[in-house]
Amino acid sequence: MDTGELIKKCVAKNPEAWREFIERYEDIVARSVRNKLSKLGAKFPRDEFHDIVQEIFLMIWENNRLAGLRDIRVLKNWLIMVALNKTSNYCRRRANTKPPGTVSFDEHVNSEGMLVSPESVIPNGEPDAGDIFESRELRAVVKKATDSLDHRQQLAFKLYVYERLRLKDIAAIMNIPANTAATLVRRARIEVRKKIDKYSERNTRE
To answer: How many CA within 13 A on the CB side of residue 30?
Structure first.
């Protein structure tokens, strides 16, 4: 597949094309991240280095940044600049980022790639989700809870809950195994649910 066609399919949110895009350009992004970290004098473990590289691709996917690329001839230089900027941002944010807690789960994934009987992020006893999200206050609670998630959990949660993507598609977008995608979704949903339950309990007492 030539570069132009690949980019068009990525802009159209094609998971298979996105997987190919990552495979094709991961090395140049990784080299850029490594060079920037070296210049900043920052040393991260291998897993965290991989997280930085992954976050760059996630940002490009989530914001559909490739749609704004006018000349594919500058793609590599563009990726280098994006990687350098995101690495700087990551280093600034790292001091305020806490590692996510470990949460186990025993639910299975169905044939459609969705978690079987997932808990709703909406507390029990409330009206349907459509009515609840009409509440500006609750929407603000959900947004704040989502924004506080680890960046990988946040992306997995948004893709699963809001875009209704299957776990295998989320895995392709994030370039991770499907079981890792399921873990990220589960952890994120638990954390968001906790915040919504607190909101619900507070309103019940009032």
So the answer is: 13
